Amino acid sequence: MNGIWQALGNAHWDIEPHTARAALAMQPGPVVPVPAEGVLALGAIGAVPAGMGIVVGGEIPYRPEALAQREQNREDYLELDPEIKCYLPGVPRANYMPYPFQIFQSDSKFFIAYEYAGAVRDVYLEDPGPPQVDSWMGQSVGRWEGDTFVVRVNGFNGYTWFDRAGNHHSPSMVVTERWTMLGPDHLMYEATMDDPQTFTSAWTVRFPLYRHIADNARLGQFKCVEFVEELLYGDLRKTPIGSEEP
Amino acid sequence: MFALTLALAPAGLLSSAALSQAQAQAQAQAQVRPSEGYTSPRTEHGHPDLQGNWGTATITPLERPAGQGAVLSDEEVARLEGREAEFFQAGLQPSDPDRPAPPAGTSVGGYNRVYFDRGDRVAIVDGEPRSSLITNPADGQVPQLTPDGERRRQELRDLNARFGEYDNPENRPNGERCLVSFGSSAGPPMVPNNFYNNNYTIVQNEDHVLILTEMVHDYRIVRLWDGERLPDHMRPWFGDSWGRWEDDTLVVETTNLHPLQRWRGIPSDELRVVERFRRTDDSTIRYEFTIHDPAYGQPWGGEIPMVRLDDLLYEYACHEGNYALFNVLSGARAQERQARESQQR
Which one, out of A175, B35, B51, B164, has a CA that is 20 to 30 A from the CA of A137? Predict the structure, then answer.
């Protein structure tokens, strides 16, 4: 599985089946809702493309209160999506974001380096026991079942989401990933989410991963912390941009 | 450097005990097992196996203290390590609840000692306890800057002088902004900081070496073939690293470092770093670095032991918990407001 991989499709916008919509955040208009102030300038680039989703069976089996939270997340989307703030993406979200990742595999190690936010996972091949602390990317422990690499991920802090549509989980979520080569340049990826606090039953996402085969393919660097400083700290400048001299 | 995110500190604290243990073990071994003749274990591809977790925390400073020889005597080692242990123990004592406030306008200090994990042993390389990490030049000092180097450092100072220290996020250090690990932890060169999380994970496949720095989960990807270098204007944070095996040594050359990487106040736009990784025993990698930069009159560098860490690394999620930058900036704004109000009164 050594190499650079990336998911194709639109699951990073919304892992459930969805039609295209005008923007990630909307505001009421005189006739119908229109794109919110904060995203208006992006026009068609800021619109959400349609997608068939990656959830097996189509719908996430939320508990009623968790579904209400999802709707709230959509309502306050621009304030709440951790991706907007360049926070670490968690699992499985990291695997279908619109950025490639690179697997480094040897007899003794299995390591995933993600382009987005420089996130990393050291997938332990020996179980070190319960995670020492909760974390954004969780603790990953992998084992081979025939030709499938099965990774159990837990120890999440509960701050990560699944997509740009407010789909969420609790810190007690356990993810079981199944990585299977379909051919030299294709992987089938599956992740089952077990989180009784948020969902009425376990559910699964499944999608193929494609190898980057260009001669000059290499993982870029998307350390986005500096890209969000104006958003997060702009009002704390001595002279906020666009303000009068103090 | 004291205004760092407190939420991160436990990572340094928790790995401290394990690191000391591993270091003590490794150093006991290093002293009885000189590197000469040591054959590194091999990966499945026949390369020397550098994989695993490694720590570089040490009390040996970068530059050699005045009047000190290159190699420390047993007495000197005992004195330095004893002093560090006393210093650490003193920091563990409960604070005096009746102590007065520090004088107005002075520093209130930073973390307690327990938050630090800067190592408690001197660096041992090839069985020698070292008084400095720099070994080239032989006097253990960073060489003088050339006039060109002085000019480049001054240009950076002039740029900074156009702003107040706390005016904008961009006026704060990279580490405080959580852009990259501070000092030169991820480098290159990868030099221990005097704070914490001086830990690394190395993973190898047939044609890559990945080096993860625990601090800010900075990772470097070293490519082991003769491929297309990045064009000059593409400058990732840790540069463009290409490696090759020379017998049992991994040799890595890096250029194209990010313009904001300014270790020791010198912009790294003309920096080329050569690093050499060699296993010298079961629990040590000898890490050598050489800096080639016209800012200095000569190439210079040093040797740092990477000691096997029999423990896991932590997720150092710096930005996600960065209350420091927020508090530093909002504190400065509050002071400005106070000053304006007192002027008006």
Answer: B51
